[in-house]
Amino acid sequence: MKPLLRFLGIVTALFAVLLIGFSLMLSRTIRNRDRAFRVSVNRINSELNAAAAEGRDPQAVIAERMPDWSAQYGADLPQQPQYLPAQSSSAPFFADSDADSVICSVQDADGLLLGFTVYRVPDNTAKKVRQLANVLLIACWGAVCAAALYLYLRILAPFRRLSEYPVRIAKLRTAEKLPETKDRYFGNYVWGMNMLNDVMQTDSRRIAQMESQRQTMLASIAHGVKTPVTNIRLYAEALGTGLYSDHGPESKEIAAKITDNADRIEALTAEMIEAAAAAVSAYQPEIEPFYLRELADLTRQEFSGQMQLSRVPFTVTCSGNPLIRSDKYGLFRIISQLIGNARKYGDGTGISAAMMRQDDGFCISVRNRGALLPENELPFVFGSFWRGSNAKETEGSGIGLYVSQKIAAALGGRIFARRLPESGEMEFSVFIDTL
Q1: Which end of the chain is more exposed for a tag (fewer CB within 10 A), N or C?
Q2: What is the pLDDT of residues 141-181, one digit of tens each?
Q3: Mean of pLDDT values over 311-317
Q4: Neighbouring-strand partners of residue 103
């Protein structure tokens, strides 16, 4: 709204300058014309007074002198002057209230009032032009302001809201759909973006599922290889200790080779396990400053609609509004995972997210009511491909919290899980050490 107000202010100032400048210019022209008109009136009336002093009829003098006055005064000559005798009983009553006329007295040589002469301004076009110009400028100002308001409300404001959506669906895996509209400018755009969002989310889920299955398979293979490797190591140690002493010195050489191969296989399996988990959690932070309330608003905006549809009570609170240097969308990815888990494993009676400042950083907390994890399982919830005892009948891959922990670590923080038996809630808290 501020750009619109700024534009309207500039337009208003511009039209005000034009209006004042044009009015001043025409006023100066009118004053100059009025001054010239009064000069000609004074001269003509002096001539009429001189003729009256000689006993001549002022009306006859006017009729006689009009051609000469026209040549002498040109455009400054008053319209046909009208002489009104003061002592004639047959003279018609005359009254004048027009500001564009001047009434002058005519006297004889003894100063006796003989009558009056009415002089009218020959042309008031400048005044009419000034009035017309003022009306036109005001009308143009109103039209420009109305057009600017229409463009802002119908095009610019909706476009500004929609322009952020491609970034949201690119960075947020759970971006909520745009409200459908029949607007002739953006209706098809909104429909297309929602369709694109559906396709991207479907593809993202499919890719995540396939990647999880692939990494699970790799991890399973790696774990399966560890057993024979362990057996090889045991046999090698038996040979090395002389358990099979009948083979003589060759047995020690064989044992050394077996041990060397076992070490290589073991290193390979460890690398496979690490690669399987790291591939799932690949993450590059994008550090930038933002206010904590922006993250709270983003969370509220993205999940409120989903929670309403699911009829799950959902609240987001933010205590304070510190300026943070971190990855807003990386933090939102963690929050999305925690809220997603809260929806899957909670009982649907309430989910809450709270964000607050700490002495040396800030904290994000997500709570949900439902089945509590046993105390002895809490140390393992952030392990890769680990699933708790409450997840037997729930879909999942067991890497969500592991990835979230990796993201938090990349941002200089950590995630903690705890049971709250008194309220029947599970709480996951994210602590980031630096602001």
Answers
A1: N
A2: 888 888 878 777 777 777 776 667 777 776 666 666 666 66
A3: 92
A4: 118
Tokens found for residue 409: 């670590």
Place of tokens 């750009």: 3
Please report where in the chains the tokens 């005001």 appear, as a residue.
138
pLDDT of residue 251: 64
Query: What is the residue extent of each domain of the chain?
Result: 2-126, 187-280, 288-432
The domain made up of 288-432 has a fold known as Heat Shock Protein 90 (3.30.565)
Contact 4, 149 (CB under 8 A): yes
Residues 6+ apart with CB under 8 A from 357: 292, 319, 320, 322, 363, 435
Q: For residue 258, which of 288, 228, 219 has the smallest C-alpha distance? A: 228
Six-digit token string for 365:
């907390």
Q: At what angle do helices 292-310 and 328-345 cross, to 10 degrees?
A: 30
CA distances to 79, 214, 378, 435 from 381, in Å: 104, 21, 6, 27
User: What's the pTM value of the predicted model, to 2 decimals?
Assistant: 0.47
Per-residue pLDDT band for 290 (boundaries 50, 70, 90) equals very high
Torsion of CA 293, 294, 295, 297, to 10 degrees: 80
Q: What is the rounded CA–CA span in Å between residue 285 and residue 238?
A: 49
Cα–Cα distance, 25 to 121 (Å, whole number): 19
**Cα separation of 10 and 141, whole Å?**
11
